[in-house]
Amino acid sequence: MVDEVELLDRAPNVVFCPHPLMPARDRKMIFEPPQPGERLDAYLARVVGRLPEPCVVMIGDRRVPPEWWPRIQVKPGTVIGVAAGVAGGDGGSDVGRIVLTIAVIALSVYTGGAAAGALGFANGTMAYAVTTAVVGAMVMQVGMMAVNALLPLPTNDLSGLGGSQASPTYSLAGGSNRVRRYEPLPLVIGTHRMFPDQACAGYTLYVNGNDQYLFIAYNFGFGDLEITDLRIGDTPLTDYKDVTVQWATGSMPSLIAGNVDTQGGTVLTATDGPIVRTTSVDTTEIHIDVQYVMFRAGNGGLEEYSATVKFEWRPVGSGTWLPFTSADGTASWFGTTENSAFLVFGSTDGTTVLGSASRDVWRQTLRKTVAKGQYEVRITKVTADTSDAQTTCEISVPAIRSLQPDQGDYAGQRILGLKIRASGQLNGTVNQLSGLVSHRLNGVATSNPAKWFKAFALGAFIGGRRIWGAGLSASRIDLAALDAWAAWCDAQGLSCNMVLDQALSASTVLDRIARCGRGSKTWAPGLLSAVWDAAGLPAVAMFSPVNIRKGTFNISYPSEEMADELEVSYINPDNAWQRDTVRVPPNATNVRRTASVELLGCTSTALAGKEANLMYAQNLYRFRSISWETDAEGLTVRKGDVVTLSHDLTSWGEAGRLVAVASATQLTLDRSITLKPAGCWMAVCRPSGEITYHRVQVGATEAQADEVTLLDPLPTTPATDGSPAVDWR
């Protein structure tokens, strides 16, 4: 259950908006009560200073012309709105008569604080119903942005079902490593398990006669990243044997050749002739994989059989074939163990003898370094093919690789180089490697949505080039508001943990981050800022039939039936970072309509439950939207503000007349009204049309009464004013 509402006691005395067209820019809320007997002009001069010209001044819901300012005595408890008017014009134009229409959206809450509190709404938030009883025009506190305005339902298409490229992290088919050409590099927000992009074409080498090693690199994206808990599938990388890991930032790890082209080979026989392949342009190193099975079945068992193979090369366009040779040190075999040095080719005429006395398949990789260029490679079986049924001689060249200089731009990117023995422990390539990644801001890992909103708005640069984020200058961002939002997010335990790996606009990313912080972006102050569902916001303006434009008050209802059940999906770290769901209400029966929502950025079961409650409460208690239009009075109001609203059409308020006034604080009405413990305000209208606002004394329990006590006395009484009490309302 929530505490009693305190909003009305915290209302500012003055709301000052110095910018005529952007009410939120440099807006000030002044909590400085007037001195006894202080006039309006002196009061504004004291607390505001020099006023803009022209200037619009509102007291409650009434506009006060400048000529009245010296004659009006400011009373405690009133909210004064001061806004710069629109100046300018020429000829016969009258800018002052131009109607500035402000659309105001509110959501009606009629169930009371008990239901809202039970569903997790905080005291004083836009999502909390604040109802108060008043006399003359009873008002109700409403949040201009409720759940569906401030926190729109997420519309994330991460699986690729909507036509976009599927996310490697959030794909319904499961995470995987892919070469995503011409797509954005991944960016981790907060902490998340991610499947990095494959940073180059993986390749294999053979050592020790049979052992195959995989060489591959993975790109974890931009930023100051802390990467732990590397896994292949569900198995920790540390559980594999013969693994070498090398990290690099801004470059490809030296362990890996980042630009490798692989061509397929074929079976090598003397009858079919040599295998000839052309390397890629700018090749600097050539790898040739050789595979063979050789033996002769003798009377005493298997005997050794051998064959001679010749390796030659030449630059493209040259007519002369040159032998692979060990004389100049450019040709060698990869070593007998994965860490050993290269083995000398052992020939100067390009020939080598392959032999074996077992049915095992033997594999080796021959390496040759060359000057940068394009080459042809020829492999020839010198030994004639055998037709002996007792002899097996099968030789093939599975692959020929061309290694070229890596010209990739890896600025600011965190890259993992991986060398792992594939024989006996891998089934193909490694395409499900993942790591737990924490992105640090200023050296500290954080998941605070507001801090990430600020970081993404500022963006990141290397050498003057923007690599991620909106790239706005600090002068275009409301840094103070974002810092306040960050403190609120910490207090609420809100977090944002996601992987951005799709083509998205900066605006969309900021919206997704803001949604995690129960807020939304706004340019209302003339700067990039945010509004969020904070508690204890003061009411900054009052709206009633006095200042609502005729014919604009509207109440809208949804045209479709609301969902009986809400299913919210999120990423659950306790479930191997897989999708999980929570349902509200739990254990629901007779469900006819279920709504499904994906909470991108949520990695907490507890937080997913709170957000599900918040969204489901919208269906139950905030399904009506109220809109109205106002003139210049709306200049003090911006998206996210709390206002007071009174309207007889909806019975939001109780109207009556005074029948007796015992004193400036003791009033008798012509009917009973409801006095609620949450607090009541009374708007009293004199026969002259002047309206004053007063707090009403209430008890610990709800009560009906036709006699009330004001906490703020009337400025005058019917007896002093000389008018009948019944003409007051």
Helix content: 10-25%
Low-confidence stretches: 1-9, 89-148, 158-164
Question: So how many helices?
Answer: 8
N-end to C-end Cα span: 36 Å
Percentage of residues in strands: 35-45%
Number of strands: 48
Shape: elongated
Q: Label the structural class.
A: mainly beta
Instruction: Calculate the mean pLDDT score and round it.
Output: 81
Query: What value does the Rg take, in angstroms?
Result: 38 Å
Main beta-sheet strand count, sense and barrel state = 7 strands, antiparallel
Search tags:
single chain, 729 residues, mainly beta, seven-stranded antiparallel beta sheet, five-stranded mixed beta sheet, 8 helices, 48 strands, 10% helix, disordered N terminus
What features would you describe in this structure?
With 729 residues, the chain is mainly beta. It is built from eight helices and 48 strands. Strands 17, 19, 20, 23, 24, 26 and 28 form a seven-stranded antiparallel sheet that branches. Strands 2-1-5-3-4 form a five-stranded mixed sheet, with no helix packed on it. Helix 4 (449-458) packs antiparallel against helix 5 (479-492) and helix 4 (449-458) runs antiparallel to helix 6 (506-516). The longest helix has 17 residues, at 605-621. The radius of gyration is 38 Å and the shape is elongated. The chain starts with 13 loop residues before the first strand and ends in an 8-residue tail after the last helix.
Summed up:
This protein is elongated.
Set out the fold topology.
Elements (H helix, E strand, L loop, with lengths): L13 E4 L10 E3 L9 H8 L7 E5 L2 E2 L16 E5 L17 E6 L5 H6 L11 E2 L8 E4 L3 H4 L36 E3 L1 E4 L2 E2 L4 E5 L3 E12 L1 E9 L2 E2 L6 E7 L10 E9 L6 E4 L4 E16 L2 E3 L1 E11 L6 E2 L7 E3 L9 E2 L6 E6 L5 E12 L1 E7 L9 E13 L9 E9 L11 E9 L2 E2 L3 H10 L1 E3 L2 E4 L10 H14 L5 E3 L5 H11 L2 E4 L6 E4 L6 E5 L10 E3 L8 E8 L5 E7 L9 E5 L6 H17 L3 E6 L11 E4 L12 E4 L4 E10 L4 E6 L5 E6 L6 E7 L8 H4 L8
Parallel strand pairs: 1-5, 37-43, 39-41
Antiparallel strand pairs: 1-2, 3-4, 3-5, 6-42, 7-8, 8-43, 9-34, 10-30, 11-13, 12-13, 13-29, 14-15, 14-30, 16-29, 17-28, 18-27, 19-20, 19-26, 19-28, 21-22, 21-25, 21-27, 23-24, 23-26, 30-31, 32-33, 35-36, 38-42, 39-40, 44-45, 45-48, 46-47
